[in-house]
Amino acid sequence: MNNLFIQYPKCSTCKKAKKWLEDNNVQFEDRNIITQTPTKEELSLWIEKSNKDIKKWFNTSGLKYKELKLKERLDDMPYEEKIELLASDGMLIKRPMLVTKNGILNGFKEKEWIELLKK
Q1: Burial 73-106 (b: 16+ CB within 10 A, else e)
Q2: CATH class of 4-118
Q3: What whole-number distance in Å separates Cα of residue 4 and Cα of residue 60?
Q4: Which pLDDT band, with edges at 50, 70 and 90, does 2 fall under?
Q5: Sorting pLDDT into bands at 50, 70 and 90, what band is 1?
C-alpha cells in the first residue's frame, strides 16, 4: 500500500505537511478531503488503528465544528453518530492525515511523522 496523504488544499498546515513530504522524498497518493471525504468504513478502521479517541479526529478549530456546537454535544453522542458526522463532511475531520501500512496520524507534528515513516 502506498502512503495516503489526505488534505484540504487551502489549509496552511496541509500545505506545510505536503511540502515536508515532498522535501523528504516520501511517495504518497494525494487525496482531497472535501472531494473525496473518507467513508464511514475508512474512518472506523483508521480511528481504531490510530489508538486515539474519536474526539481527537474532529477539527475543533473549524467553523462547522463550532456551528454545530460539537464541543457541547460530542460527549453525549453515540460512537456511530460521531462516525456518521465525520463521514458527512470533510471539514469536520482533523487534517492533514497520513495513512501508512504502519499507522495513521492526523494533524501535522513533524516528529510523529518521522517516527511513523521510519517504521
Answers
A1: ebeeeeeeebbebbbebbbbbbbbbbbbeebbbb
A2: alpha beta
A3: 23
A4: confident
A5: low
Q: 106: which strand partners?
A: 97
What integer best gives the mean pLDDT of the chain? 95
CA atoms lying within 13 Å on the CB side of residue 106: 24
- Where exactly are the structural domains of the chain? 4-118
**Sheet strands (E) in 1-119:** 4-7, 29-32, 97-100, 103-106
> Which grid cell sits at 39?
467513508
Omega cis (within 30) before 96:
yes
Which residue is it, cell 504502519? 102
- Sheet with 97-100, edge to edge strand ranges: 29-32, 4-7, 97-100, 103-106
